[in-house]
Please model this.
Amino acid sequence: MMAVCAIFAATFSPGFAGDTKVHRVAIQVDQDDPAVMNLALNNATNIMDQFKAKREDVEIEIVAYGPGLNMFREDTSPVKDRLKQISALSFPSRIKFSACNVTKRGMEKREGHPITIVPEASLVPSGAIRLMELQESGWSYLKP
Model:
């Protein structure tokens, strides 16, 4: 009976080989620089490919704020096509693009007109706070 209990405990305890860990990484983009954004997208793609090869799950969130928000603007993004491509090819991994609403509102006020964000991105109240929340939830952090 003791052996059965030991096997049961080992089978259902954390760390058992059957458990699947989901890897999570937040990537910060705060520069209006296509090279930096492409590096962030390359990092994301490489991370997805590596974990896919290992048959492990990964979630990636690229958070843009400040000047980096230009990478997610419909009218200024030099990487719109790449965002569409990565979004479409990310399965089974999950990638999310988060755009800072504080920055968006500031840009709209300065420019005097509404700003449209690419459809692949979603607005978050604050990019900086979003990064903090992700890290506080155990996400890894990467700044290209």
In short: The chain has one domain: 19-142. Strands lie at 22-29, 57-64, 94-100, 121-124, 140-142. The two ends are 54 Å apart (CA to CA). Residues 19-142 form a domain with the Hypothetical Protein Ychn; Chain: A, fold (CATH 3.40.1260.10).
